[in-house]
Amino acid sequence: MFGQDIGIDLGTATVIAYVKGKGIVLREPSVVAVNNLTGDVVAIGHEARRMLGRTPGNIVATRPLRDGVISDYTVTEKMLKYFINKVGGKFLFAPRIMICIPSIVTEVEKKAVIDAASNAGARKVYLIEEPIAAAIGAGIDIAKPCGNMIVDIGGGTTDIAVISLGGAVVSNSIKVAGDKFDEYIVKYIKKKHNVIIGERTAEELKVGIGCVYPRIQDMEMDVRGRDLSSGLPKTITIYSSEIMEALEEPAMMIVDAVHSVLERTPPELAADISDKGIYMTGGGCLIEGLDKLLQEKIGINVMIAEDAISCVAIGTGKALDSLDTMDRASRR
Q1: Which of 66, 81, 164, 222 has its CA 20 to 30 A from that of 113?
Q2: The domain boundary residue, chosen from 206, 222, 246
Q3: pTM of the model
């Protein structure tokens, strides 16, 4: 393959790859199973996710990205290499890769992403901020001189930005998103029912009956966990009203972060946002009622983008079209 361009949404929970001309070609969990004794990678992606919390002592299933940034460099590099090869097969020339990052990351964290992708086989690596990629993926024309607000709730971070003329005017990134919701569910069930459940069970509860705004009808779901007093497996029934109680605190943290970005937004752009509304993207925004809660607390219309989960990857993919222009500009 000659010079294939790849856009990668390197998420804390999921890696989505977009190939120019083909669209989304890969969507796998960012989980890697490693043999502790030899350091070898045992499984990556879907296969590794099935091993979470179910591995023998010598094999550890981990997520090499935490809170939107690389926490285990070596494992991230191996994971990227595997996904790049899976997407492109064998290249005649190494691909150019665009990777999206949270809006607030340090230079060291940026360098870690660039190095990991370069060592995994990229010819050249470009970075794009998540909210900008999300806005492009949601079909917003970001080049115009008017304000658009994006709230991108992923697995590790929530990125909020006011975008005008192709760049972020005001932005914020908080480490409260899908994973944090799962943590709060685990804590709540441990405290209220004296039962400990795993991360995957918490995620099933969040997706199945989770909400942050009262549902018309209270839903229920049976889950299995370990009773802390007896140490034995136990099945309990959880209601959506309980999950709402568990998620109240992290949901309000997101609302507060949106509020603080709006407070720092120039008045002209704030007027634009008030007219157009706020766009929500990312898997985390699909939790029942989050758009209603935000709309009620902020007082501005809130819309969930079409195909919210893939918005960032689609935007990263569309941004690949401008790589040649970027290359020409850097040569000048």
Answers
A1: 164
A2: 246
A3: 0.90
Count of helices and strands (H, E) across the chain: 11, 18
**Which ranges of 97-195 would DSSP assign to H, the alpha helix?**
107-119, 130-137, 178-193
Contacts of 251 (CB under 8 A, 6+ apart): 212, 290, 293
- Residue 70, domain CATH: 3.30.420.40
pLDDT tens string 188-221: 999 999 999 998 899 999 999 999 999 999 999 9
Chain centroid to Cα 51, Å, comes to 21
Clarify whether residues 149 and 264 are in a common domain: yes
Does 35 share its domain with 89? yes
Claim to verify: residue 35 and residue 127 sit in the same structural domain: yes
Mean per-residue pLDDT of the chain: 90
Domain containing residue 199: CATH number: 3.90.640.10
- Is the pLDDT confidence value at 106 over 60? yes
Eight-class DSSP state of 305: P
- Distance CA(137)–CA(152), nearest Å, equals 11
Domain that holds residue 239: 178-246
Handedness of CA 141, 69, 155, 5 (dihedral sign): positive
For range 140-169, the mean pLDDT: 92
Radius of gyration, alpha carbons of the chain: 21
- DSSP-derived letter for residue 93 is S
At 90 the pLDDT is 61
